[in-house]
Amino acid sequence: MLLKETKIGICFTGSFCSLDSVLPQMRKLKEHGAELYPVLSNAIASTDTRFMTAKAFREQVEEISKRKAIDSIVDAEHFGPINKMDLMIIAPCTGNTLAKLVNGITDTPVLMAAKAHLRNQRPLLLAIATNDGMGNNAKNIGMALNIKNVYFVPFRQDDPVKKPNSLVADMDKILDAALLALKKTQIQPIIIGEKSL
């Protein structure tokens, strides 16, 4: 098992269309021995969408991790001094979360978990999913690439013709990116080509 006894915080933010592609990766991390600690953003914890209800998503996350999901800023702060993780993953990481992260805003459980984790000088892995990654959020991606202990899952334009500014991580690469991030190494290449059909 590649991740035996590795403690991983797995955080979810509101790119609702991406959630189905993250759950299998969560299972894969678990199968490789990771101890998973789920964290839900306010939007994920409370919003029902055409993709999934908040309750159904929480149930799946808690069933995979075998742990109650953290959904408050108060509980997420424990990732700093009390419950230290080896790795924290935000998947999907929305443009909103990314922008707040690089600007030091801590107003959701996920952002508090990330802030608490980074203060321990441990790796934070971002799997971005944002409609303005090649627009307003491009500068935030650039800033995050220069933050110590922040790493990216490789990403691509998900629909260059209809949504030219949209970027999404290749969620299938979460495990490989996580293994390297644990070694304080950025998986390469970061920017990848179109997904083959």
Describe this structure in words.
The protein starts with 6 loop residues before the first strand and ends in a 16-residue tail after the last helix. The mean pLDDT is 95. It has a single domain, classed as Flavin prenyltransferase-like (Rossmann fold), CATH 3.40.50. Strand 6 and strand 7 form a beta hairpin. It contains 8 helices and 7 strands, in the order βαβαααβααβαβββα. With 197 residues, it is α/β, with parallel strands linked by helices. Strands 1, 2, 3, 4, 5, 6 and 7 form a 7-stranded mixed β-sheet that branches. The longest helix has 13 residues. Helix 1 packs parallel to helix 3 and helix 5 crosses helix 7. The radius of gyration is 15 Å and the shape is globular. Helix content is 35%, strand content 21%.
Structural class: alpha/beta
According to CATH, the homologous superfamily is Flavin prenyltransferase-like
Distance between the termini: 30 Å
Main sheet record: 7 strands, mixed
The CATH class is identified as Alpha Beta
Radius of gyration, in angstroms, nearest whole number = 15 Å
List the helices and strands and how they pair.
Blueprint: E1 7-12, H1 19-31, E2 35-40, H2 42-46, H3 54-65, H4 73-76, E3 87-93, H5 95-102, H6 109-118, E4 124-130, H7 138-145, E5 150-152, E6 155-159, E7 163-169, H8 174-181
Parallel strand pairs: 1-2, 1-3, 3-4, 4-5
Antiparallel strand pairs: 4-7, 6-7
